Please model this.
Amino acid sequence: MRKTIIALALLAGIFTGVAAQNAAPADTSANTKPESYITKHSAKIDGKIISYTATTGTLILKNEKDEPVATIGYIAYTKDGEADVQKRPVTFAYNGGPGSSSLWLHMGALGPRRVAINDLSPTTPAPYKLEDNTSSILDVTDIVMIDPVGTGLSHAIGKAKNKDFWGVDGDIKSVSGFIKEYIKGNDRWNSPKYLLGESYGTMRSAGVVAFLQENLGIAVNGVVLVSAVLDLHQLTFAPGDDISYILYLPTYAATAYFHNKLPVKPADLKSFIKEVTDFAKGDYTLALTKGDKLDDAEKDRIAAKLAAYTGLSKDFILKAKLRVNEPQFTQELLRAEHLTVGRLDSRFTGINQSLNSEFSDFDPQSSAISPAYTASFLNYFYNELKVTKSDNYHISAYDAEGFDWDWKHTRGFWGPVYTPNTGVDMADAMSKNPNLKILVLNGYYDLATPFFGTEFTMDHLGLEKNIQSNITMKYYEAGHMMYVHPASLATFKKDVAGFITDTSK
Model:
């Protein structure tokens, strides 16, 4: 079962899909020392020149016996000229995977430099262009990009092994430990603190915010969830479990809307999405819960409605027994045009090389941007940040020897579960710290972590009414990595910067 969950989670597009380098092997020496490369820069952000210091390096993580167990790589950006860093916000950020380095958020949204790409067009081969990120959040917060064990420069040391950190709980504990070490080493105890994760990084953040608070005595001001998944089972399309079909439906409809595949296209996307979401909550849910007892007339009515909302044929939907999973949808929607639809961003399309295949076998969005991001980052890492070329930066741990994520998550009296839901952790942290604020950023065209699934999770945290308003939801007409869309990037910056400014006063 656990292998199935891993395969489905990766298939859903949580991992970016770039060809991975092997992760760093564990270092058998317990005396590994931290590294540090410091460079000075300036960038134009929101019309102003910001001078900053970039620190690229590693910190040593120790266990409860004070034994070194991992070296954790990071890239930190701190704004120069701040009179009191204790009052300056600091944001700890990472991507997901699990098994991805932080380069995607780094070079797409947060850092002072970004990859120049042309949104929906496939990126041309090198040379690529780096430019000042005018939408970086560095003007309002210092930024620490973290690479979990097996990615970047991070790996196990001493008696530890990489696999000790490759799991829900081990990952939460190690990232939390790094944050404490960074705070201690840089005198940021009194700084307003934020977590910002994307995709699996949101599942991580929900666990880290609770671990920091409960185990390390560190309360954070806010958590930014970018393309969130806190409850893994929503993505699995598991046999006998209809939740995934219900939660994906509004994103199928948004995708069909974008590609002009609806029989009758409504004038307004948002109103259309609300209509489809209401149908998913109501008639569609009721029909699916009847299972094999659903009569033919009702089945036909629901299939007709699904065809009108998704752009798929009624016949196809009936053959699927009203249940079309995500790889089937991305393969079928534009099959007649010999195209397949993106998972991370369903606005993207790619050539369908297997027209008879039931499932799509690649993600056009990932294929379009990954080479540019990877090459541009590594060029930046070694030439602008001046890291020695003997330090091998690992884009991901996905193809590393022994990489097998442990999905077991232990939480309170529930004990270990294998389809983790760290929303439980976040709800606990919010209840014990009623000042904790959450900002959730969703892409309408995200088929990796659909927005209705996130809404469902946030509506089922069991929070008291007085703290339900601590969660703010924002939406973008883009996908999983909404920041590849220029207009959405500008709004992303405005939303995140405003959130940090408002909650750090």
Summary: Residues 1-30 have pLDDT under 50 and may be disordered. The first strand starts at residue 36 and ends at 45.
